[in-house]
Amino acid sequence: MGRKWNNIKEKKASKDANTSRIYAKFGLEIYVAARKGEPDPEANRALKVVLERAKTYNVPKAIIDRAIDKAKGSSDEIYEELRYEGFGPNGSMVIVDTLTNNVNRTAPAVRAAFNKNGGNMGVSGSVAYMFDQTAVIGVEDKGIDEIMELLLEADVDVRDLSEEDGLVMVYADPEQFTAVQDALKAAGITEFSIAEVTMLAQNNVTLPEDGQKLFDKLIDALEDLEDVQQVYHNVELEE
């Protein structure tokens, strides 16, 4: 079965904090996704996925339009997608996805964030093999049986469904992201609390209190970096 997402509360809370920073990161991610192919989400899967996630964070239309218009224009800004892997306090595992136009700036900054907060950088592949790339879609709880039935009727394959924090969570292969959403929308479910392709840990760990505090500082330090887009981890958050 699919791996459960261990940070729904954290994700909900993050929507109300550091809004300007979050919007700036989305603007860059939308621009890069639009540059990958057509600046049309119906013809560009990467763009469609990031736009669906942006909706769950209430990213203003003006920011989205500005990023897509920039991609359509003559901008020659080139960004690389780089992934860093490492270990936090008590052997916790962390994946850091970045978009950067200056690798010489990004790598040292990520390394410093690890080193200053009880962690250390690992080599490529040292952590990612313990995570599964997964499409995660959460809707207000309308009954897990109802959601399961409509997905079956639409012949959409999913890894798992569960009820978590007042949401019905659907876990599926990344390639099924659009199919899941389309099936739900066809059934009249158009509002999504969560809609993204993420990295889920195969096994979560619980840290002691001192380790948790240091881990929180590490995640904050990484997320504050200009070039960091996403941070994934395997730490079970306290209730």
Automatic annotation (TrEMBL):
Source species: Paenibacillus cremeus
Protein name (Swiss-Prot/TrEMBL): Probable transcriptional regulatory protein FPZ49_16460
InterPro entries per record: Integrase-like_N (IPR017856), TACO1_YebC-like_2nd/3rd_dom (IPR048300), TACO1_YebC_N (IPR049083), Transcrip_reg_TACO1-like (IPR002876), Transcrip_reg_TACO1-like_dom3 (IPR026564), Transcrip_reg_TACO1_YeeN (IPR026562), YebC-like (IPR029072)
BP-aspect Gene Ontology terms: regulation of DNA-templated transcription
A cellular component annotation (GO) from this entry: cytosol
Domain of life of the native organism: Bacteria
Segment forming the signal sequence: none
Gene3D superfamilies in UniProt: 1.10.10.200, 3.30.70.980
Segments forming domain TACO1/YebC-like second and third: 79-235
Gene Ontology molecular function: DNA binding
Family: Belongs to the TACO1 family. YeeN subfamily.
Stretches assigned to the TACO1/YebC-like N-terminal domain: 3-73
Protein keywords: Cytoplasm, DNA-binding, Transcription, Transcription regulation
